[in-house]
Write a structure and sequence with these properties.
3 domains, mainly alpha, single chain, Serine Threonine Protein Phosphatase 5, Tetratricopeptide repeat, about 450 residues
Length: about 450
């Protein structure tokens, strides 16, 4: 029985200027990059062109090889290989992308995964330290890839497209602040996959391209952050690693340093102090040459938090002093729009976490009270965190009733409970006061928490 020729594969190969032997060689190289060995030859390529069958994973390698050549995303189905959608990688498996095409492919795969699926269980890190260290080092010593210059002119991207992405990012950020990381994540993922990623493989001027990649990186890190806030740390890690690689295309050192700071924040939250310190210091050093004082204050504050978690009193104090000195000059430079949230309330909030983790009750209470006072109520989640840190700090000082009252205010506010991270703050506090389980105020608080979570389930 004769087979129909694969005209789609032939067309893409022609567009890429790829011969049978050239494509076979590229497929072998891609497979080797993934730790696989293939014996693909020009004979196999001709068989595919003639309509012959292909293994699913081989089709994925062919698509990646042609994506690398054309510097745009090619899927197996675009090559006339039906039924060859690759199986999803385990959510925790990733590495620092070797090319733009590989990075875009990883991001596209991530947008098909929901934060509520395959949450990372247990206490082992979703990524080994070696992968994280390698990514940080690769970024630190990298040079900008440069924008693709040979993309087909099937679509021309303009500043209007970039403005639309920034507007959408602001909208999704507001939903995240108000309702927690999981809210509207499906719509967010769909928008990023269908309306943002394709633009990165289109045609644009140098000015538009730089703005486009900045906007795409900002949106990608929002997806990482919302997955983190939802409690899916493995998915968040993969988004962060891919976003870090995305910043390398145009050499956006400030956004890249921010991603490392976010990764440090997450490692700190998970109790991985050495990793948190390494990532925070990488962000400080990586951003130092180009970051504004406000950005450097953010990076230094997270170094302080990581050092506080590690119990390094002297190091944490030094990093807090550095953050404070940077912040004194925060208004002396024009900051990127995404940094607008880094105000005095945010800095003080980072410091109160530091003093709490160092066990310095009086300073922790003083800074936490100030953070609660300064935080705009529209940032419900941040305000909830600050109130819970204040409660823990009051407990450090031995003031049980004040601590329970403060924690009760945080829980009663309700909105922050949408965050898996905030729920962890509450459960940590409940564990800390469990030694007073028979105290009426503690019993009342535990009952209020249970009722609040029940209301959340009913809403």
């Amino acid at each position: 029985m004769s087979k129909d020729p694969n005209h789609r594969l032939a067309a893409v190969m022609a567009e890429a200027g790829s011969s049978n032997k050239g494509l076979a060689r590229r497929v072998r190289e891609v497979a080797q990059r993934h730790g696989d060995r293939l014996g693909t030859t020009h004979v196999a390529v001709q068989r595919w062109l003639d309509g012959g069958g292909i293994q699913r994973q081989t089709a994925v390698y062919v698509a990646e090889a042609l994506s690398d050549k054309l510097r745009r995303k090619i899927a197996p189905k675009d090559l006339g290989f039906p039924g060859t959608v690759p199986a999803r990688e385990p959510v925790g498996a990733t590495r620092y992308g070797g090319s733009l095409a590989e990075t875009l492919s990883t991001l596209e795969t991530l947008t098909h995964q929901r934060p509520e699926d395959a949450r990372w269980p247990g206490d082992e890190p979703p990524l080994p330290d070696s992968d994280v260290h390698s990514a940080a080092l690769s970024w630190l010593v990298s040079r900008p890839d440069g924008l693709p210059t040979d993309a087909p002119a099937t679509r021309r991207v303009g500043m209007r497209d970039v403005a639309a992405i920034r507007t959408a990012a602001g909208f999704f950020m507001q939903l995240d602040f108000q309702f927690g990381g999981g809210h509207a994540h499906k719509a967010f993922r769909h928008y990023f996959r269908e309306d943002v990623l394709p633009l990165l493989s289109a045609s644009y001027s140098a000015k538009v391209g730089e703005a486009l990649f900045q906007a795409a990186s900002e949106m990608s890190q929002l997806l990482a952050w919302s997955a983190y806030d939802s409690g899916n740390h493995a998915l968040s890690h993969r988004y962060m690693m891919s976003t870090l690689r995305l910043t390398q295309i145009i050499g956006d050192r400030v956004m890249g340093a921010r991603i490392l700071t976010n990764m440090s924040h997450q490692a700190n939250y998970l109790g991985q102090a050495p990793r948190a310190v390494m990532l925070a210091r990488a962000s400080v050093e990586g951003g130092r040459a180009t970051a504004t004082p406000r950005a450097m204050a953010l990076f230094s504050a997270h170094e302080a938090r990581a050092l506080a978690t590690a119990g390094d009193h002297r190091g944490a104090e030094r990093a807090m002093n550095e953050a404070e000195r940077f912040f004194e000059h925060a208004d002396s430079a024009e900051d990127p729009e995404w940094l607008a949230y880094m105000d005095e309330a945010e800095l003080i909030g980072e410091f109160c976490h530091c003093f709490r983790d160092l066990g310095e009750g009086p300073d922790a209470v003083r800074f936490a009270e100030r953070a609660v006072e300064l935080t705009d109520p529209k940032y419900a989640r941040t305000l909830g965190f600050c109130r819970m840190v204040l409660a823990q700090s009051q407990l450090l000082n031995g003031d049980l009733e004040a601590a329970v009252t403060t924690a009760g205010l945080a829980v009663a506010a309700g909105d922050a409970l949408q965050s898996a991270r905030f729920q962890r703050y509450v459960s940590d506090f409940q564990r800390e006061v469990s030694v007073h389980a028979h105290n009426p105020v503690v019993q009342q608080f535990n009952g209020d928490v249970q009722a609040a979570i029940q209301r959340l389930d009913d809403e």
